[in-house]
Design goal:
Keywords: Signal. The structure is a single chain. The protein is built from 3 helices and 2 strands. By secondary structure, the chain is mainly alpha-helical. It has a domain of 72 residues: Helix hairpin bin (Helix Hairpins). Helix 2 packs antiparallel against helix 3.
Length: 150
C-alpha cells in the first residue's frame, strides 16, 4: 500500500496545474521621454509635378510672324484683349493688289458699259467684265475680312 500511495502522490504531482516558473528573462532596454504639448503643422513638404486644372491653347486663323506679345504666362486676360500682334505685311500687300485689280476691272466695266449703248461692244463682253469686276470686289472684301479676323 505504501508503494501505491507513493505512486499516487508522484502521479498527482506530475499532473499539477501550476507550470514551472521560467528562468528570469533579461530586461529589455527602453528609453523614456516626457510627453509635452507642441503645435501641429499639417503641411507636408514634398517634390511633385503640378498641372493646372485649366489651360488655354492659342491659335490664329492665319499664319504669320508674331511681332509683339502682350501678356506673360500665368496672366489673367479679358475677352477681346489684344494678346498678339502679327506682322501682316503679306496680307496687307495682297489687299493692295486686290484693290488695284478691282479698280482696273471696274474702270474697264464702266468703259464697256458706255460702249454697249453705241453698239460698239457686245453685251456678252460687258457681262463678262461685270463678273470679273464683281470677283475682284469680292476678293477685296475677303482680304479685309482676313485682316480684321487676325
Amino acid at each position: 500500500r505504501f508503494g501505491a500511495a507513493l505512486l499516487l502522490a508522484v502521479a498527482l504531482a506530475g499532473c499539477s496545474r501550476e507550470a514551472a516558473a521560467p528562468a528570469a528573462a533579461k530586461p529589455i532596454p527602453v528609453s523614456v521621454q516626457a510627453v509635452t504639448t507642441q503645435p501641429w503643422n499639417s503641411t507636408v513638404q514634398s517634390i511633385a509635378t503640378v498641372r493646372a486644372r485649366e489651360s488655354v491653347a492659342l491659335t490664329a486663323a492665319v499664319s504669320d510672324v508674331v511681332e509683339q506679345v502682350n501678356f506673360d504666362s500665368g496672366d489673367e486676360v479679358k475677352a477681346g484683349q489684344l494678346l498678339l500682334r502679327l506682322r501682316g505685311n503679306s496680307q496687307q500687300a495682297a489687299l493692295t493688289a486686290a484693290q488695284a485689280t478691282f479698280e482696273e476691272t471696274d474702270q474697264l466695266y464702266r468703259r464697256q458699259l458706255s460702249l454697249v449703248g453705241q453698239q460698239l461692244v457686245a453685251k456678252s463682253t460687258v457681262d463678262t467684265q461685270r463678273a470679273l469686276r464683281d470677283a475682284a470686289q469680292a476678293r477685296v472684301q475677303q482680304m479685309r475680312a482676313e485682316i480684321t479676323d487676325r
